[in-house]
Fold:
Amino acid sequence: MPSAQKITALRGMRDVFSAEYARYQAIQARLERHLRLHSYIAIDLPILENTELYLRKSGEDIADRLYEFDFKSRRVALRPEVTASILRAYVERLQDEPLPLRIQYSGPVFRYEKPQQHRYRQFTLTGAELLGADGPRADAEVLHLACSGLEQLGVTDYSLTIGHTALLEEFLNRLGLRKQLVNFLLRNMENLRKRGLKAVLESLETIYPEFQGAALAAESANANDAEQSQRLINVLREMTDSEAHQAVTDFLHSLNIRIAANRDEGEVIERLLRKIREDQQAPKLQLALDFMQRLGDLAGAPADVLPGARALAEEFDLDRDILMSLERTLNCLAEYGESPGRTQLDFGMNRGLHYYTGLIFELHAAAPDGEPIQLAGGGRYDNLVSTLGGSEPTPAAGFAYGIERLDSVLPSDNDRSPEPAVFVIPVAEEDYAAGIGIAADLRAQGIAVEMSIVDRTLRRSLRHADRRGAALVVIIGEDERRQRAAILRDMRSHQERQVGLADLTRIVVERLSEHE
RNA sequence: GUGGGCGUAGCUCAAUGGCAGAGCACCUGAUUGUGGUUCAGGCGGUUGAGGGUUCGAGCCCCUUCGUCCACCCCA
Structure:
């Protein structure tokens, strides 16, 4: 026989066989039930979406991990996560639902990454979204839901790490850094701590060569050669956009300077401001990095971290509500009965998806080899509905579990694939009709039946039934055919008896219940 | 993207540079209507692909592809 080229599964894609598949299904079913008991309605959404859905806000890292292609002149992508689809569906079809709206989902997602242990290119998420509610109660519900789901599964030794994107974002926005730079810094918050200032600056220069000067200046940290003209700039730097705009307008007017009539005055001032601010990127970058380093040090038990966070917020005059709200969330979580010992705060954490606007969190537990792996992640994304064209700004938060990861953490209680309870062996061609009838009767009683369809000796058929783990075997041969009966053989006790066809189903049911 | 390991029968893997093997699975028989054991036999290979060194390459060298693992990132 000429052997053709073997076709293998794509890299990072896995075939999931019976025992493993049964475990996944059990995990998923338990989580879905858990979410349902919290009134999260299950919905199912397409796996294929418009590429645009993920480019808008998910972030650049996800964009180049997208399975994305042109199909009939349309850009489509396999979903790398489900939140965007949920909100897309909400904007499209569900905006007339009373809020808050609670939704759950389960299904595969695809990310083109280098596969390795506990990381596949296709994996399964079960997640929940809470739409139209914000504040500590909503955040705490989401956190509690994620944690208690793990407990439902029997994962007891897990840790909850909570971060927050708003402090840094507020600080960076007030600084007036260029949008690109702000995004870069937000993305590299965690890298700053893990790999240090130098590595972050290097990567900044690689990605955005135009900031090279700024990065260098920030590194040498003495970009402040004050000139006279610098004073106005420094004043402007401290202002918000609209304040600065007004100040420049007033200033020009007071000097009786007229902008050329063919150009929009506002636009000219915008440009002027932008120019001034670009010149100021270096010292601002320095400020930003200092702030980020201090923020990154704020990690540990909430009681240890919060005082430092408060002091930092005070020092930079950041919105007090952010931390107060976070504390209330933690208190509320305690009311749910979550043991505070496993909760960590980490202001240096950031996440791969860039739509988060507030609370972010991750759940970790130890894999069998002792290495901690992430089981779930989520957070708050209050702008995503608007980004996707929602008619009203709608706060939202959610999270998702990785089913395969959960399985790797749970003890594999060797539950075997469902075994056929009864194996039916017609000995000769003439016996098949009777065999089919018997099988149908048994199945009508909810009993799993495997029918022998291969030409084999009785000996080999029994051997096969045995290996399959059948509890009972029904044999129909010449004698039985004549007597309108069958042999019922108990594979465990090795005992067999002839049973009339009329009584067979009843007796099989009895025998199986004895086997239980 | 960077670094390492491994590609040999359907599966899991052996084989100092010298006849390509074992276990499992499948099939046949010992036992023609009775099982997980045993015994005998059978099927099964372009050693991932291409090139090089050599009297001789599964083994050494180069290239390439595949795959696993680590970094990175994440579920």
